[in-house]
């Protein structure tokens, strides 16, 4: 079955490689972009069968884009394709409405299977994540940072990566004052007094990798 796919990733070489793979196997790449805002616009304009999105992009990022796309079109089918395998990021993406989560290190056949499965309405997690997530759920593990909003977790992840407020504001398309407020809220919820302590806690939970 030929699928209409929108592909959004801010790394052109990777994006072009995935687009080439999809086209070579009979699918139609109807739109490409490199920011969260472009993902939202392309989804609204083109209504593809599947959207394949990176998580860490300028203009809002993949989690925020997923949330906005699903709010406008609850039937939208979104596959996250990313390098980020942190548990908290998987939770954020699924809560936002993603139907699949795949790592960029996956084999081409696994990607093609995931695209087709998401188009059918199935939930798909890549083989690199499946065993770990099954153990995580079976153990009844508490959700990382359960009291945080998705935006606060996103900011904390970027703090844990070593980004300053200005860089976070640019990456997420937010005002610097908004980022300062979010960082302050994160510190309060973590019950720490500085960024260094926040980074330690975040990295212990798998963020910032």
UniProtKB/TrEMBL annotation:
Domain HTH luxR-type: residue ranges: 141-206
InterPro entries for this protein: CheY-like_superfamily, NreC/VraR/RcsB-like_REC, Sig_transdc_resp-reg_C-effctor, Sig_transdc_resp-reg_receiver, Tscrpt_reg_LuxR_C, WalR-like
PROSITE patterns the record matches: HTH_LUXR_1 (PS00622), HTH_LUXR_2 (PS50043), RESPONSE_REGULATORY (PS50110)
The UniProt record lists the keyword Transcription: yes
Name this protein carries in UniProt: Response regulator transcription factor
Phylogenetic placement of the source organism: Bacteria, Bacillati, Actinomycetota, Actinomycetes, Pseudonocardiales
Domain of life (superkingdom): Bacteria
Keywords for the protein's UniProt record, in alphabetical order: DNA-binding, Phosphoprotein, Transcription, Transcription regulation
Organism: Pseudonocardia xishanensis
């Amino acid at each position: 079955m030929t699928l209409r796919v929108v592909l959004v990733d801010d790394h052109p070489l990777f994006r072009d490689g995935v687009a080439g793979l999809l086209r070579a196997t009979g699918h139609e790449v109807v739109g490409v972009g490199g920011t969260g805002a472009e993902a939202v616009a392309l989804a609204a304009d083109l209504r593809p069968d599947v959207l394949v999105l990176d998580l860490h992009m300028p203009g809002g990022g993949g989690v925020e884009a997923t949330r906005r796309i699903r709010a406008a079109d609850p039937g939208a089918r979104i596959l996250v394709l990313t390098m980020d395998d942190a548990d908290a990021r998987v939770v954020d993406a699924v809560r936002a409405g993603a139907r699949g989560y795949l790592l960029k290190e996956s084999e081409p056949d696994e990607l093609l299977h995931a695209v087709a499965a998401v188009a059918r309405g199935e939930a798909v997690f890549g083989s690199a994540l499946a065993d770990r997530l099954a153990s995580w759920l079976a153990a009844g593990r508490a959700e990382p940072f359960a009291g945080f909003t998705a935006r606060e977790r996103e900011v904390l992840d970027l703090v844990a990566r070593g980004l300053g407020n200005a860089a976070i504001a640019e990456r997420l398309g937010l005002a610097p004052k908004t980022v300062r407020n979010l960082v302050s809220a994160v510190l309060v919820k973590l019950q720490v007094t500085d960024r260094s302590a926040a980074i330690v806690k975040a990295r212990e939970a798998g963020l910032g990798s």
